[in-house]
Amino acid sequence: MAEAKTLFQKLWDSHRVVDLDDGEALVYIDRHLVNEVTSPQAFEGLGRRGRKPWRVDAVLAAADHNVPTLMRSQGISDQLALVQVRALASNCQALGITHYGMDDARQGILHVIAPELGITQPGMTIACGDSHTSTHGAFGALAFGIGTSDIEHLLASQCLRMRPLKTLRITVSGTLGKGVSSKDLALGIIARLGASGGAGHAIEFAGDTIESLSMEARMTLCNMSIEAGARVGLVGVDQTTIDYLQGRVAVPSGDAWEQAQAYWREFVSDEGARFDRELAISAESIQPIVTWGTSPDMSCTIDGRVPLPEDIEPTRRDSYTQALFYMDLCPGMAISDIRLDKVFIGSCTNARIEDLRIAASVVKGQRVASSIRQALVVPGSGMVKAQAEAEGLDRIFVDAGFEWREPGCSMCLGMNEDRLLPGERCASTSNRNFEGRQGAGGRSHLVSPAMAAAAAIAGHFVDVRTC
Ligand SMILES: CC(C)[C@H](C(=O)O)[C@@H](O)C(=O)O
Ligand code: SF4
């Protein structure tokens, strides 16, 4: 009988070109996603060495981090952003790489557009100069972030040197409660594992809870794997995966669709496959979560309080004290007493159509609290924006007092015009809450779209289950 393999092993084996003598292997990469921030030096290096991309068809580029989300016709005012966005466009044009610039209807955050166009497919290897490439693992693909020098190698050879990852299976069983989403599950898992607990691992999410999640929700979970220290998140292929892909622009049709489906369905862990580590979680134990600190694992449930020093392990007390100082919070303070200045609904974690539908359903017919200075909804892509507008979600947000923007990374990180000012406090559906992440001196609290929407209405955190 053939050896039972994990999904990771199948992906690795089907892409390993050759084992190298130092424990690394040369791995073939099917898709390369390129953004404006991490690619300029790679293109420069390629040009300097007189090389050309080896397989231009495998590359998709889009400007996402730096683009303005307002008044695009006026161009980009920040000089560095302008240089990077222009360099991406001209490099792609010169080399024949498909590129969606900020005026293209398909533009958006790469981790939103590649799946929705069907460019992300099961059984593939996908790399991008961006850590949240783990998102694509929701499709049973081996997807991970790479650095700038690797981008150059990848463009030139379509291969990367890498070491096999250890495997961690997280089995989630039961039903997530009403108002509890895969973002809460992700934050709950990170709280349990710690922000580096998944280091060196590919995390596979399995169990009946995961099987019942939509592709959007699975992407949120895989997106956040990196915040648990893992390089890769994975979900095995099932009918939900196949249904999501059917009819998407880059997905094969006719006989090729039948063949593709049959091939894709192999990308699951075999019964009896052995993982290096296992963790079991009950979905019922997950509640809406809010981060209070400056690392995604510094969080508690909405009915909780900022921890007391004695609740924190002695080795972590310094970072706890530093985090509370930066966040301007007191030990023991009720999470629901945290008042907010801004609310951001967006990012590659939570700016897909399902996220916007959920947020709109919470907001509908209500008004953003007058104490909130700015509440932004930034769709993850042009296609998400168009779909949301076709469903009237933009009206719901605008009527409630939210700003409805053009797609991009926006306030997820302070690389464009959407930022927190020093001292401002934000409920954010993004994935990182490091010091200064959303703007120098800004304070970020990570939450689900439903919780962000409810917080915008209340002006402080509230339990969306009671709204
Ligand atoms: C700019 C990019 C390299 C970075 C990443 O790798 O993730 C960014 O997308 C982020 O979310 O911090
Ligand atoms: S939305 Fe945020 S996390 Fe995602 S790629 Fe952009 S900056 Fe990185």
Automatic annotation (TrEMBL):
One GO MF term: 3-isopropylmalate dehydratase activity
Cofactor note: Binds 1 [4Fe-4S] cluster per subunit.
Reaction catalysed by this enzyme: (2R,3S)-3-isopropylmalate = (2S)-2-isopropylmalate
Family annotation (SUPFAM superfamilies): Aconitase iron-sulfur domain
Binding site for [4Fe-4S] cluster: 348, 409, 412
EC category name: lyase
Keyword Lipid metabolism: no
Residue ranges of every copy of the Aconitase/3-isopropylmalate dehydratase large subunit alpha/beta/alpha domain listed in the record: 9-459
PROSITE patterns noted in UniProt: ACONITASE_1, ACONITASE_2
InterPro entries found in the cross-reference section: 3-IsopropMal_deHydase_lsu, Acnase/IPM_dHydase_lsu_aba_1/3, Acoase/IPM_deHydtase_lsu_aba, Aconitase_4Fe-4S_BS, Aconitase_4Fe-4S_dom, IPM_dehydratase_rel_enz, IPMI_cat
Record flagged with keyword Metal-binding: yes
Cofactor annotation: [4Fe-4S] cluster
Keywords associated with the record: 4Fe-4S, Amino-acid biosynthesis, Branched-chain amino acid biosynthesis, Iron, Iron-sulfur, Leucine biosynthesis, Lyase, Metal-binding
EC number(s) stated in the UniProt entry for this protein: 4.2.1.33
The organism's place on the tree of life at top rank: Bacteria
Pathway this chain belongs to: Amino-acid biosynthesis; L-leucine biosynthesis; L-leucine from 3-methyl-2-oxobutanoate: step 2/4
HAMAP family named in the record: LeuC_type1 (MF_01026)
Assembly behavior: Heterodimer of LeuC and LeuD.
Annotated function: Catalyzes the isomerization between 2-isopropylmalate and 3-isopropylmalate, via the formation of 2-isopropylmaleate.
Family recorded in the similarity comment: Belongs to the aconitase/IPM isomerase family. LeuC type 1 subfamily.
Name of the protein in question: 3-isopropylmalate dehydratase large subunit
Organism: Stutzerimonas azotifigens
